[in-house]
Amino acid sequence: MQLTPLARLLADAFRLWHSRDWDGERIAAYQRRHLLKMLRYAVANVPFYSALGLDGQAIHCVADLERFPVITKANVQERGREFLSREFSPSRLKHSKSSGMSGEPTVTYFDARCWWLTRYALKLRRVLSDTKLRRQRVLLVSEQPARRPQSPLLRLLSPVLAVRTLSLSADLAASLQELREFRPTLIYGFPSWLLALARAASEAGIALPSVPLVYTSSEVLTAATRRTLEAAYGARVVDIYGSTEFKEIAVQCVHGRYHVNFESVYVESVPRVEDGVPRLLVTTLMNEAMPLVRYDLGDTGRVEEGVCPCGRHGPYLLELAGRLSEVLAFPDGTRLSPYLLTTVIEQRETVHHFRIVHEGAWDLRIELFAPAWTAADERDLENSLKQVLPADVRLRFVALATRGTYAKRRAVSREF
């Protein structure tokens, strides 16, 4: 029997509510079934994949995924329309644009079912699972202008959910005032911005209201930042790994494992040929409008499966270390995660804002906004950084006159 769109969404929502409790065998069977279905669909309906000359009827197992090429953001930017299904009119699709930190934002299209499930249903399931069934006041920190969302879904949920947004570009003092007036029970924001707001409150001698739950995303959450946020907001901090192209991909539990939203994505960890560094490839299991297969997000990480001490089964991610493009590579072959450095810097309470710039083969520039900074502080930080860097690396410290603009922060910028 063919379900109506509304009945299908209701069935999807019912399954999503219960699927977190599935065992590993059932999860693996679900992923296999929906992965094969999506691969066959892509070959039959998407120009880019149709041109590969693959026979959809010959796709029988998960290993057949390796017959598909790895694609990147550049492929989608150059040949975007070729990734759209012939079954949909672009004018009738939802779409999201990446933040464009590289200067080249990407547009991803979604069919209505995928949009509702990945943008709303999965998030709602997470919030309801993490909070008690009482009215929530949610504060969203966004790159967009501040507003009070009025979507049909939020209006429907208004008896149990009040939502406000704050803009990253807003003055920290004004944001702090908004936080104290709204007194959110849940905050969703970038780690670096939340850290900056906490330090602004400390400078002003203002106590932050207690926030039971803080969700962080878009940047790597270091252990030092987590501890600071937990102390400043009195919060349980939950990190989320996601992307514009797939929305939420995985959510971190108290044991540090990022549990994959296996209902919406299939994730591989494949070593790069040139250096063996594990990269994450993601395939959608839901988006029939633009079914990206083996999409290289540019992030490093490892996929494991099994039972977690938290009780959940299925695939999870470990060793998430941010963008491969941000890895510090030196002439002697040494490759370091930039978060070895950011963790050291973040431990200095007098540092309010910083940037790491790889300005030469052996040269790093550390830009700091730290009004109370002293020469002794600089020597101490330099000695600490040199403990994790190759001996030939030269450090140069530059004092920033202002905090700068808050946005999604890159761990390292390159100038050579």
Walkthrough of the structure:
With 416 residues, the protein is an alpha/beta fold. The protein has helices at 5-19, 24-45, 47-50, 73-78, 112-130, 152-156, 172-182, 191-204, 223-233, 339-346, 375-386; strands at residues 94-97, 107-110, 136-142, 161-167, 186-189, 213-216, 236-243, 247-252, 258-260, 265-271, 278-284, 295-300, 302-305, 315-318, 328-329, 335-336, 353-360, 363-369, 394-399, 413-414. Strands 4-3-5-6-7-8-9-14-13 form a nine-stranded mixed sheet, sandwiched between helices. A hairpin with a 6-residue loop joins strand 10 (265-271) and strand 11. Helix 7 crosses helix 8 and helix 8 crosses helix 9. The radius of gyration is 22 Å and the shape is globular.
Q: What are the key terms here?
A:
31% helix, 416 residues, globular, alpha/beta, 11 helices, 20 strands, four-stranded mixed β-sheet
What layout of secondary structure does this protein have?
Layout: H1 5-19, H2 24-45, H3 47-50, H4 73-78, E1 94-97, E2 107-110, H5 112-130, E3 136-142, H6 152-156, E4 161-167, H7 172-182, E5 186-189, H8 191-204, E6 213-216, H9 223-233, E7 236-243, E8 247-252, E9 258-260, E10 265-271, E11 278-284, E12 295-300, E13 302-305, E14 315-318, E15 328-329, E16 335-336, H10 339-346, E17 353-360, E18 363-369, H11 375-386, E19 394-399, E20 413-414
Parallel strand pairs: 3-4, 3-5, 5-6, 6-7, 17-20, 18-19
Antiparallel strand pairs: 1-2, 7-8, 8-9, 9-14, 10-11, 11-12, 13-14, 15-16, 17-18
Helix pairs in contact: 1-5, 7-8, 8-9
